[in-house]
């Protein structure tokens, strides 16, 4: 979603995601896992401002948005929302650098990133920011690259970046993703879904979680949930939600079980970890139900708690 655009600057809102379904199919020779996942973008956004400069420097500044729970808690912010690297370890920096190298240009840019999406939480914040950075660089530096070309770069940066490029930033927000996550089939789901997301103190590393996973002998198929998402009740959807990575994540963090159980006790239709964790989400019937569940979870001080709905793209 683009907010503001001028000759040398653009501001992009990059959404978080939830994995409604994630199944592992095989381990590949390159170390990645073949999987099937259904992801939906949700209306919690980071904001990325990309400004072209006259020199060849790439500078990236990162901060939590004023008013976020982590910003309010000062030093506890890292534990609550995750670390904010500003150099080449930040995927945004790597995205813009990749664009420069691919285009063979040396133009500089000033990138300002305002974070609201917790890091190391399975909510896709870094991947979404990287997709936003690719699009911003392409537009501001007037490269005119096709979506196919941008997708190739996105897949080089990370397995979830193509989803954000195709579906989070431009599409209706929901897709079935295959391969290592980079083969995207948009799902024509237009109904609103309502969630409460909780990110416990302490994140999980995606690589650590995948290292501990086992491939099921009889994997679940995503197709059931794809059909249910179009026409089933929220209870039907909740019954078909699934995340195979919650098994290894539970070995790494006792918070996962605690959160998903607390969500059910608070009245959620269903609860599940997102991606490789550590954030979990509760599926709710409507916004009022979500607010009620969120209030109960907040009173238990389980971590950062927020309500969210699935979102598609609107251009401003
Ligand atoms: O692609 P991305 O950088 O997000 O992946 C982080 C790590 O997660 C990879 O290094 C890999 O260990 C693991 N991964 C995997 N199979 C996938 C996606 C990620 O094994 N489909």
TrEMBL record:
Q: Report keywords, A-Z.
A: ATP-binding, Isoprene biosynthesis, Kinase, Nucleotide-binding, Transferase
Task: Name the residues annotated as catalytic in the UniProt entry.
Answer: 17, 160
- Nucleotide-binding is among the record's keywords: yes
> Which superkingdom does the taxonomy of this entry point to?
Bacteria
Q: Matching Pfam families, A to Z?
A: GHMP_kinases_C, GHMP_kinases_N
InterPro entries given for it? GHMP_kinase_C_dom (IPR013750), GHMP_kinase_C_sf (IPR036554), GHMP_kinase_N_dom (IPR006204), IspE (IPR004424), Ribosomal_Su5_D2-typ_SF (IPR020568), Ribsml_uS5_D2-typ_fold_subgr (IPR014721)
Binding locations of ATP: 118-128
Pathway assigned in UniProt: Isoprenoid biosynthesis; isopentenyl diphosphate biosynthesis via DXP pathway; isopentenyl diphosphate from 1-deoxy-D-xylulose 5-phosphate: step 3/6
Q: Which Enzyme Commission number(s) are listed?
A: 2.7.1.148
Q: Output one GO MF annotation.
A: ATP binding
Which SUPFAM superfamilies has this protein been placed in?
GHMP Kinase, C-terminal domain, Ribosomal protein S5 domain 2-like
Q: Which reaction does it catalyse?
A: 4-CDP-2-C-methyl-D-erythritol + ATP = 4-CDP-2-C-methyl-D-erythritol 2-phosphate + ADP + H(+)
- Which HAMAP family does the protein's record reference? IspE
Q: What does this protein do?
A: Catalyzes the phosphorylation of the position 2 hydroxy group of 4-diphosphocytidyl-2C-methyl-D-erythritol.
Q: Which family does it belong to?
A: Belongs to the GHMP kinase family. IspE subfamily.
- Give the protein's recorded name: 4-diphosphocytidyl-2-C-methyl-D-erythritol kinase
Q: Which organism is it from?
A: Blastopirellula sediminis
């Amino acid at each position: 979603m683009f907010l503001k655009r001028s000759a040398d600057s653009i501001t992009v809102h990059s959404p978080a995601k939830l994995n409604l379904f994630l199944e592992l199919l095989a381990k590949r020779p390159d170390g990645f896992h073949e999987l099937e996942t259904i992801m939906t973008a949700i209306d919690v956004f980071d904001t990325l401002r990309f400004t072209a400069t006259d020199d060849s420097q790439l500078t990236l500044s990162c901060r939590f948005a004023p008013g976020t729970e982590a910003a309010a808690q000062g030093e506890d912010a890292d534990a609550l929302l995750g670390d904010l690297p500003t150099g080449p370890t930040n995927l945004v920096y790597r995205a813009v650098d990749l664009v420069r190298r691919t285009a063979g240009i040396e133009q500089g840019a000033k990138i300002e990133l305002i974070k609201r999406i917790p890091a190391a939480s399975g909510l896709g914040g870094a991947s979404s920011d990287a997709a936003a950075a690719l699009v911003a660089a392409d537009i501001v530096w007037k490269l005119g690259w096709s979506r196919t070309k941008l997708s190739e770069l996105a897949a080089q940066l990370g397995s979830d970046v193509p989803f954000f490029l195709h579906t989070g930033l431009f599409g209706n927000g929901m897709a079935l993703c295959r391969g290592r996550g980079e083969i995207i089939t948009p799902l024509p789901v237009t109904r609103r879904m309502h969630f409460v997301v909780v990110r416990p103190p302490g994140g999980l590393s995606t690589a650590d979680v995948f290292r501990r996973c086992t491939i099921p002998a009889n994997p679940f198929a995503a197709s059931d949930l794809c059909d249910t998402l179009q026409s089933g009740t929220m209870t039907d959807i909740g019954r078909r939600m699934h995340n195979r990575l919650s098994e290894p994540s539970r070995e790494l963090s006792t918070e996962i079980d605690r959160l998903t159980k607390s969500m059910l006790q608070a009245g959620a239709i269903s609860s599940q970890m997102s991606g490789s964790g550590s954030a979990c989400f509760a599926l709710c019937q409507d916004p009022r139900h979500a607010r009620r569940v969120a209030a109960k979870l907040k009173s238990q001080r389980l971590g950062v708690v927020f309500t969210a709905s699935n979102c598609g793209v609107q251009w401003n």
